[in-house]
């Protein structure tokens, strides 16, 4: 696997940091998650990672993290600026002890600036980046795309990219560096095409009035007879004409027609057949018209099956992407899960803690456990 041999410490957080760690784990890194409590039910992206719950209020707990950082390649931390410094775990200390350490700081607003100390969530980061103002239909309020754009694309994914870039640079310099990953900046960067294309004909109008934001009737979704939907993306003339022919309205519409006229006509036609009937009709065409699959049905689509898009279709767990021909990634879900005692012993043995010392750490609540099993 591409990242085999890379050791990563992930300080437990929500959404973006676990996703960043998941990516590195899927591609072969050994990821150790440092939890605040022995059980973490909120982290649904924890598969394939080792974990240990450490009480960072204890000096010995902080020392354990320092020692683990000395034998690690990457640290992912999701706290507000200054928290790690207060714990004595800031980059100045950890990188002086391990100059090769990649210290990744994943936050909403970054390590400095007027908002750096403020709390926020995906919707807020999108708002401050300016990108949220683009999202939504005409005459409706801005609508965030769940929390995918800032938390996961601009946050976890770009942080993972920054870590990989820093690891590559380290091969030349021998030194680690700080990765300052801000979700505001990440959301803006992911949206570069959107902001830099405003002079093109497809943009430049108000929200919901442009070609790609449901402002055009030939780039939208339409309800079918069985209350499902079809996606229409006929931007190019040849695809548009093929769609009209398949719908049986060839010559009755052009891409320059009034949007309300076109939308009303397509709405009426798509409601005459079920999603399956339309899908079967469009299956043999090249017209950029496809069914909007319910998320539970996506794993059963023939293309997704053939490409092994999902590792576990019942749980809707996607396989890692992209696919590498020589060193393919493996879903973290496929990795054998160890119990808490196996994890604790394996992790602490790497910094020379023996069984007696581990028992002492558990007894004084430096290492937190559920109390199940035996050491």
UniProtKB/TrEMBL annotation:
<dbReference type="InterPro" id="IPR003673">
    <property type="entry name" value="CoA-Trfase_fam_III"/>
</dbReference>
<protein>
    <submittedName>
        <fullName>Putative l-carnitine dehydratase/alpha-methylacyl-coa racemase</fullName>
    </submittedName>
</protein>
<dbReference type="Pfam" id="PF02515">
    <property type="entry name" value="CoA_transf_3"/>
</dbReference>
<dbReference type="InterPro" id="IPR044855">
    <property type="entry name" value="CoA-Trfase_III_dom3_sf"/>
</dbReference>
<dbReference type="InterPro" id="IPR023606">
    <property type="entry name" value="CoA-Trfase_III_dom_1_sf"/>
</dbReference>
<dbReference type="GO" id="GO:0005739">
    <property type="term" value="C:mitochondrion"/>
</dbReference>
<comment type="similarity">
    <text>Belongs to the CoA-transferase III family.</text>
</comment>
<dbReference type="GO" id="GO:0008111">
    <property type="term" value="F:alpha-methylacyl-CoA racemase activity"/>
</dbReference>
<dbReference type="GO" id="GO:0008206">
    <property type="term" value="P:bile acid metabolic process"/>
</dbReference>
<dbReference type="InterPro" id="IPR050509">
    <property type="entry name" value="CoA-transferase_III"/>
</dbReference>
